[in-house]
Structures are given as structure tokens and as C-alpha cells.
Amino acid sequence: MVLTGDRDKNFCAGANIKMLAQSSHPWKVNFCKFTNETRNGIEDASGNSGQTWIAALNGTAAGGGYEMALACEQILLVDDNSSAVALPEVPLLGVLPGTGGLTRVTDKRRVRKDRADVFATKSEGMRGKTAVDWRLIDEAVPKKAFDDTVAERARAAAARSDRPTGAAGVELTPLQREVTEDGIRYRYVRAEFDREAGIATITVNGPDPSEVPDTVERIHELGADCWPLAMTRELDDLILRLRANELELGTWVIKTSGDVEGALAFERIIAEHSGTDWLVNEIRHYFKRTLKRLDVTSRSLFALIEPGSCFAGALLELALACDRQYMLDGPWEDADASEEGGQAQLVLTASNFGTFPMATGISRLASRFPGDDEHLAALRRETDRRILATGAVGDGGAVELGLVTDAPDDIDWHDEVRIALEERSSLSPDALTGMEANHRFVGPETMETRIFGRLSAWQNWIFIRPSAAGPDGALRRYGTGRKADFDRKRV
Prior knowledge:
The protein has 20 helices and 17 strands. It is an alpha/beta fold. The protein has two domains: 2-160, 2-enoyl-CoA Hydratase, Chain A, domain 1; 180-439, 2-enoyl-CoA Hydratase, Chain A, domain 1. A seven-stranded mixed beta sheet has the order 8-9-10-11-12-13-15, sandwiched between helices. Strand 10 and strand 11 form a beta hairpin. Helix 2 packs antiparallel against helix 12, helix 2 runs antiparallel to helix 18 (447-462) and helix 3 (64-70) packs parallel to helix 5 (101-108). The longest helix has 24 residues, at 25-48.
């Protein structure tokens, strides 16, 4: 994948600053979060999809343009005595390179921190040999040789790839969605809004057993209509729409509906073929990235596990991504507990132990039980069986195994859930966002968690400070020829 600029002497100058200056604070933060996720997706494709991304900087790459280049595996800059790489946000805009720039310079490019300090405060950036010596780029290539060198690097990268050469791609047809004042509905995913309570209830429908293909060839034939790909695309779209457009729906209640066996049948196909078939592999990693998008969403996430749910294997990850999980103990009143689906059930599978890792690089189960290898080993012994909410001592109910927060019975269920949701809605959204981000990312720090942590702590604050966003701040005065009036108090 060669990423280059369409204009002579200009790869990319970054964001539209006037747009940012006029945007609301939530839009700025969502903008930075989405662009971070896009860059993380490029790096994930480099790590897991047999792709090599090469940034062919045919001209200056500044701000977000250089941050896009930083997501690539190789950076080539044309050496024409004028083109440079730069992160000018601090000196020109009074903000930070908010899509991972500072972190990737030090953590990924291994630039020495004193040099990183000079670079991030030098608005004109660095060119040629100096940029190479400082590790800001990999190569500075004379203009006459630039196109040939880029082509040579691309051919070499393609030759190393394990992607198939004769495969046919899958057409991602337009999503069919119905948007109303009360919700958004797709084929397999729907969201229902309670605006007065500030709640969005999201339901993911599992596949009917008859929809489950029995061969890889059938998965390719179905393409965009294959359930795991179709469902993931819809969920991905829904998360982004709710994040950007429904700011006051501060609590998301996540449910599933469908046949457990159908969900597990797809699970088995992905487990069997994700290492050998390119499309199955891409579906797996796409679902992983969508779960990560859920992890960094600044909303309270509650899972409700009821009779008729299909929180099994990959779909169980939706519940494990939530801040709390409530599971009904026993059947609904007047229901037959002996019937299939008469009681709420969970099913652990091998995929819950690392197939869909978080940004920390560990599974959501490992994040739930940090450092408790003994308990994780015990959970592995519970895989592939249907787990009810409670049972006799030693029977391995979901409460005893620590997989749910609480398990009220039918008499208390509605009141317990209502009270929990009402209490959540009464708390400070700002405090909840900070608290949830801390609790969700238990475990080791990675470049990815550092990027999002710094985005939350720094850019969220900087974007509302007068030095950047005030009427005389750098964002407002950029391009006017007038210097920003900075608030000189260090806070």
C-alpha cells in the first residue's frame, strides 16, 4: 500500500484548521479519536493482514499529514531542498499532535526525546539527511529517483507478503440502515433510544443456524452478506454514529438475541480458517478493531444477559467489553426453564482467551482478572459448555466464575436494572469518562493505550483552554497574521 500526495511538493498539510477552530469541543475530540483509530487500523493491517504501508512523501508532510505517515511501516521523503516533515501543532496552533504524533515519534520511530522536543517546537520541521539521522524518516530520495525508488520498495514489500495473488476481493455493498428519532435499525443490529433517560439499547442479532455456511467457499460466495462481516460492519457504523451524533445518550445497554448454536457454528469456522483464508482472517481482525472502538468509547456500557441471548464466544466479547454485566438468574415468570433458551446462558470458547485482544495486547478476560493466571486457567476448563447464572457450589455458575456483576432473579430483575441505570445517569459524565477509561485498560501499557490515554488527558483539556480555543487563541488566529494571546499561567 503506497500512500502518496496528489499535489506537487505537498504530501499533506494535515487538518482543516478553520474547521477545527469552529467545531464544538466534542467534535474535536471525536475527530482525534477517529483519526487515531484509522492509523491504528493501518498498523494492524501491517501486523496481521500481510500488508506493508509505505508513505511516499512527494512533498511536505505537516501535522496530521506526517502523523498519517507515522502510521506507515516505511517513510520515504523526496530530497528537493524544500520538502520537510513537521509537527507544528505546538508552535502554530497551541495544541498537540492529537492523532498519535508525539507518541509514535518516540515509541515507534525511537527518536531521542531531546530531539523530539526540538522537532515538535520547530514549525518548519526537518528535511533530508537530518530527518534520516534523527529517525523521522527512513530515506531521503533525490527527486529524479523518487518514483523508481518507491516502486522498488513496493515491489520488495509485495514479494514478502503472504497475501494470495489470485484471490477475488469482496464487494462491500452499501449498508442498509433506517434512522428515526427513536433509533437506528440495520439487518442484524439495532439501537433504540430512550432520550429522557439518556439510554441507547443496542441489540445484536446472532445468525440463524440455517444462515451458517459450512465451507470457506460459501463464506466467499456470501461476501458482504456473510453474517459476521455484515454484523460487524453494522455495529462499527452504529458505534461511530452514536459517538458523533448522540452525545446525551450517555449509557449504552448491550444485548444479543438469537441461537447460541448458530453463533458457535460461525465461531468454529473462524477458529479453523482465520490462519489460512485471507477473508476469514480479515473478518476476525475487523471484529477485533470494532471491539476496540467500543473499548475507547466514552459511554457507560452495561450488558444485559437474558433468556434468548446468544452471548457465546465472539459475541461474549461484547459483554466482557462492558463496565457491568447483569444476568437473569432462572427463567422469566411462567416460562419453562427446561426449554431451550429458557434460562440466560453464557458460553466461553477459546476465542475469549486472546483471539480478539484489547489495545493492551491482552484478552478482556485477562483484563477482568489481572494477574490471576490460576483463575484464567480454571475458566479455560469451562469452555464450550453452557453456563447459567448460578448453581450449586462448584457448579460453575457465571456469578461464581466472576463473569457477571450481578444475577437478580425474575422478581428483582427489572427494579435492579432500572436502579443501576438511573444511578449511572445521575453521575457526572466527565467523571464517568475518566473512571471508565481507567478501569477498562487494566494491564500493560502499549503505544496504542498511551496514545488514547494522552488524548483523553491532554487534548481533551487543551482543546477547551483559551490559549488554543479562546477568541484570541491560536486556533482562532491561525492564518490571520496575528499572534495568539496565550494565557501564561502554567496549570
